[in-house]
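Worked Example 4.2. Read the sequence first, then its structure tokens.
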Amino acid sequence: MPLVKFIFSLLLPLLLVAGCRQVEDESSVVAQVYDYKLYQDDLAGLVERGTASEDSVAIVSNYIDQWVRQMVMLSKAEKNVLADISLQMREYRNSLLTYAYEKQIVEQLLDTNVQESEIEEYYNLHSEEFPLKNTIVKAVYVIAPKKLAVAGKLRLLVGRKEFDEDAIVEMERLASHYDLRGYYESDVWIPFANLQEAVPITTYNEKLFLKQRRSVVIDDDSLRYYVRILDYKIMDETSPLELQRENIKSIILNHRKVELLTQLQADLLAEAEKGGYVKRNR
């Protein structure tokens, strides 16, 4: 009933105004549509002080014309959809009250403490529910001028067979000493596309590239990029737990909330039935 709701919301303020004027002096009525009346007081403040008289007349006349059209529509709406609107308003009130009560119960009783062991257990049992939407990597890199005294050292550093935390520390040290830009968050998963935005890596086969190239040195017109890819996961593989931890926590809390409210409904029903407050006529 979108149209009915729109009409009702449009006309309700005027309906309230009209309904509250049952004892006004009839001589102050400036317009009437069926049982709805527009009074002189309703026009107060409509025209700003200093407005020319002919403009004032036009403003008041237009307002009255609009009011008349709206009251005609409202009268028709009352006869045809008022019962339906009243039902919808009752249903909305019931839903609002129920929601507010459930929210109050959840805030008071829901256990929001989720253990890491619960998160890991859920992830292990439902890992197929978390496919990656894009390829992700763990990587570090340094961006340097092509002609740099330690260029060879950087190349050897990112190309190490055993690339550990000490290598990352050395990269950061060299970058700091020569004022080079870089990225060293080796434990953070980032989209491969983000790495490609920072480093000019071009490939038509992400999986093959990442499988074969753990160490990457790329040149552009003026810069050289030293990249070490530490780990990767291809799109549609299972997303790592690190990326899903907060999501899983929300899922667990939502399950608890559903269980809490289901139990609440059962307890309230049992209490009402025990007290004889529930009657079923079948």
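Now turn to a second chain, presented in exactly the same format:
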Amino acid sequence: MTPAPAQQPPIRSLGQDRRLTKPGKRKRIARLLRTIALVVVVLVAIGPVNALRSPSADPTSAKLAEWARDHQLGFVVTGAESALYRLHPPKIGGAPDTSIINALPQQAATQSNSASGSSPTHTSFYPTRLRPFASGVVSGEGIFHTVTSHNGDPTSAIAYLRPDNQHSSYLAGVVWLNHTHTALVQHPGHEDPGNVSSWSNRDFVSAAPGSNLIATFNGGFKIKDAKGGYYQDGKTAGTLQPGAASLVVYRDGHADVGSWDKDVRMSPAVVSVRQSLKPLIENGQVTSDLTKNVESKWGATLGGAYFVWRSGIGITKRGDLVYVAGDALSVKSLATLLLHAGAVRGMQLDINKAWISYMYFTDGGGSLQPHKLVPFERPVNRYLTPTSRDFFAVYSK
């Protein structure tokens, strides 16, 4: 009997050999990775395009920077800004261009011998002169000029000051708003806080004759970066945080500035609240830690660069508002300017040349004419068209 041949192992085709299938798997993985990369590229390409299609008049650079920050690419923007800052830091020394002072209505208050004073003809405290910080003499520096009035009583006035002895070629604008004749209105931006249709106010204002509009100015940091909330119409974007610096508007239009749940708090009279970071001034004193952790506390723009465009607002002991904005300002010099203008409580609003905007409006012979407080980047009619960020309008009452 012939023995059965030994059983041979089955013969595998080349495609069945596991060792030989690895290159195939690698090819499939490579194709998958290329597909994913293509999708990412498309998304990255489409994202900025959609951002650029925003209905706001924001400059292209600002739109792209905001999109990048919202998509975890803030380090790229900050790196670029820091490089530009190192190449073009604020100028040291020199004399300022005083044309911005000369452009003010030549209606200055009677000067007093003190750093600031009051006039018996005014129903509210009126600071007539601010003592300059920097040495030397600049014509018109520190003198308040009335820019709007109500029945002969000033409703707003503007002065200019060099922020310190080093940055002597810069002028910061200081605005005084008479609380007895002005009313504030908070407006949302269509991107921040967004959902404009859900708020009672629009993302722009009218400067039509008879509107009583006397000024507009920027709000604070974006809500997600402000470490606080935006409240209006009984709704809140973000979260109102105890201790956060807050600009509060009441039903009669008057406003207050202070630490939430300490100096100011929710009540039936409150119509809007805008929070932004921590207070700069409390109890008539500059906050002690303004020079510590500048980037994490007072703004990541420019990697926490010390002297940049900044804006802030404060309340005086008589209830008037003071607003300050300018270039080459540190957090401390901004706070010092607010304090010098009479603020007993104060806060930083937005920073960066692209986001700071204060315009005052004067009668131009039947129409309201807007004017820039300082030479910021945005057009003077910024808030007369839909805008991406929240802001405030000031009306005469």
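Notes for the reader: The chain has two domains: 20-87, 99-396. Residues 111 and 276 are 35 Å apart (CA to CA).
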